[in-house]
Model the fold of this input.
Amino acid sequence: MKTTDAGYINKNNQKNLGYRGISETHNNQKFFEMECLDCGHKYMANGCDVWLRKCPQCNPTKTSKEKQLAKQGATTKSRRISNKLRYQVLKRDNFKCCACGASPAKDPTVELHIDHIIPWSKGGETTLENLQTLCSRCNIGKSDFE
Ligand SMILES: [Zn+2]
Ligand SMILES: [Zn+2]
Done:
């Protein structure tokens, strides 16, 4: 089962209820409805995020892996994305644009950027969860350009 299949449950006990369409306002990302199996809270996540989403309501304690990332300098205090974190985002997103799937491996003119999902200016943190890979084409026009 893929993370984007309806019925998929991730390690944080968050169930993917299925594809809910494309967001016109958010880089044409594919949005999925998620349900927290602990408290029943429902919310939207984009396709890249399904596997790692945590319930915004329960906000469970950080996993050991996340603690480790924090130690490695994946700080939430800075807008700047460290090279290590940048690489982790690219790797998680399979070195592809989250919005259109463009990949430099297939098309050398594709340039990938790391983007804050919730803009830094709106309180979005510089964490693996709040970062996504976008190609320069999809990223153009975003005020929070990285
Ligand atoms: Zn919950
Ligand atoms: Zn793109």
